[in-house]
Amino acid sequence: MKSESLTRRDLLLKCAALGSLTMIPSLSLSGAAWAWEQHDQNARKPTAWDEIGPFYKRDAPQTSQLQRRGDPGLPLRVAGQVFDSRGDVLSGAKIEIWQADHVGRYDLEGYDYRAMLVADREGKYGFDSVMPGHYPGRVCQHIHYLVSAPGHKPLITQLYFATDPVFEGDPQRNYTRDPLIQSSDLVRPVTLVGDPKEIHASVNFEIVLEML
Amino acid sequence: MLRCRLVWVVLAGVLAIAAAQTPQPNAETIRLPLPAQAASVALSASANRAAVVCRDGKLRVWDIAEARLLRVIALTNGNIDYTAISSEGRWIFTGDHSGNMVVWDSNTGQAQLQLRSPHYPSTAAFSRDGKWLAIAPMGDPVQVFDVHAGRKLFETRSITGGTAAIAFSRDDSLIVTADADTAVRVYDARTGKLLAENRDFLLEPLAVDFTSDGKQVIAAGADKVLAFIDANSGKLVRRLQKTVEPVAYLEVSPDGAFVATVFMKADNLVKPAPVAVWETSSGLKKQEWLPPTVALGTSWTRDGHLISADATPDSLRIWRIR
Fold first, then answer.
1. Where are the domains of chain B?
2. Cross-chain CB nearest to A58 (options B97, B202, B270)
3. Which of A51, A108, A156 is the closest to B203 by Cβ?
């Protein structure tokens, strides 16, 4: 069966004729075809998964300020937006993050460098932290994410940094040096901002959830 | 500068001598020579067998008591993430980082069951009678297979983050899982029906086993505490004293009187962490032993001894701890 020869408009017309598609009176066939194509054009690839690791802790506090005043380490600002795979923003998505401190230690007793965020009306989120440290037994610096939203498959993943010395400046080529990294898309560029006395790193990490 | 270095050299020497002289109570070794370093190990102490996957991509099956190499099986992918062995020693599970999972018949060296998963294995466990195999691919539900028939029996419901540890009860009627969403769950091993759930852990439980009568579950993990849980209701029965490090593995002794725990160094996962033995009735720690390198496998023998394996570049050392 050669369905690929049908245009979106032809397909909608055929479906409407066969009764497998019903449209509200205010929506024309061409309007529906245009809207459908727009959705296809905005479609986004779901964010790659990564394993959860052994130190997830539930009930993290809702805060965007993980770095406390005086905490050592390179200040880090992470921001991004949460979408579904059609490209629609996901407001209200719950984002749990946890990471090691600047010397690679996880806080197992309390909630240092652990937080829960809620994506805003535009699906945006952000938090202030420090660049996580390396630790023996794990190759790359990383921040863990657990993202959930009603009607979507929960995403567990990790954010990596293109400036990590492990990648030697070429994460596209060297990301497999950490066997846990499932996709080079998880390794994000780092921008250093601020004046030399108060420099900090800035990273954008967009998240796309699969619909159930 | 030179003086500083000299102090360090002297200090290192003193520490090395002290370490060499530190008594290792009850520890005797059997050394199994290997042509390549062991990467993944499973011990079936009751059957006196060790399944050892080495960095040369080969699975070696040893008779521990006789220190005799029984079989060498060439693996298609040596990048093995998890190895498990059935208690009678016949079946050996290997799962690689590409999601290829195989159950080997150690009597023949042939593959009994071959599976392909999108994700690599997080953990796996055979039923006590060796008939069933429960596998948890990373982030995915637990899948239970009939090893002889080579077919999937059921899978549990999906848990966010997947499962870190699985154990069957002594009569194989129950399965317990330590799950990444911090819950401990008990399932009917024949149907996969969820029977009980415990949500007292804040951090992930990483190790589970049943008490010998199957009435309770012992679970522990990053919360650094051993919790006894009622297997019927999922309710917490009691907790033991807080441990210094997270628990990575635990196993109840054949007579049920003791539980062995293998710790992990949270700040340094490649550094050796102690193996400890606890009395289940009193909750008291009866023994602690620090392996020279990271313990790769630990198991109770049928007659109640505890053995543990660690690796040197060219051998696997089996230590009798208790």
1. 28-320
2. B202
3. A108
Q: Which of A111, A112, A156, A178 to mutate against chain B (most B CBs within 10 Å)?
A: A156
- The 10 Å Cβ neighbour count of residue B291 is 22
Mean pLDDT per 10-residue interval, chain A, length 212 residues: 59 77 73 70 90 96 93 95 95 97 96 98 97 94 97 96 95 93 94 88 97 90
CATH number (domain holding residue A203): 2.60.130.10
Nearest chain A residue to B220, by CA: A54
Edge-to-edge strand ranges of the sheet holding B163-168 = B163-168, B174-179, B184-188, B194-198
pTM listed for this prediction: 0.87
Same domain, A182 and A80: yes
Task: Return the CATH architecture of domain B28-320.
Answer: 7 Propeller (2.130)
How far apart are the C-alpha atoms of A54 and A57, rounded to whole Å?
A: 9
CB atoms within 10 A of CB B43: 27
Asked if pLDDT for residue B99 goes beyond 90, the answer is: yes
- Is A57 close to B202, i.e. CB distance below 8 A? yes
Numbered residues of chain B with Cβ closer than 8 Å to any chain A Cβ: 79, 97, 119, 122, 138-139, 160-162, 164, 180-182, 202-204, 206, 221-224, 246, 248, 264, 266-271
Give domain status of residue A57, yes or no: no
Q: Answer whether A104 sits within 8 Å of B270, measured CB to CB.
A: no
Distance from CA of A136 to the nearest CA of B (A): 5
In angstroms, the separation between the Cα of residue A27 and the nearest Cα of chain B is 39
Q: Which two tokens stand for residue A36?
A: 């459908």
Q: Which of A13-17, A181-185, B186-190, B298-302 has the lowest mean pLDDT?
A: A13-17
Q: Chain B contacts of A212, Cβ < 8 Å?
A: none
- Residue B203: which of A55, A154, A156 has the nearest Cβ? A55
Longest Cα separation, chain A:
69
CA distances from B184 to B70, B117, B162, B166, B300 (A): 37, 24, 12, 10, 23
- pLDDT for B185 beyond 90: yes
- Pairs of residues, one from chain A and one from chain B, whose beta carbons lie less than 8 Å apart: 69
Domain that holds residue A22: 3-42
Touching check for A110 and chain B: CB below 8 Å? no
Residue A41, classed as helix, strand or coil, is helix
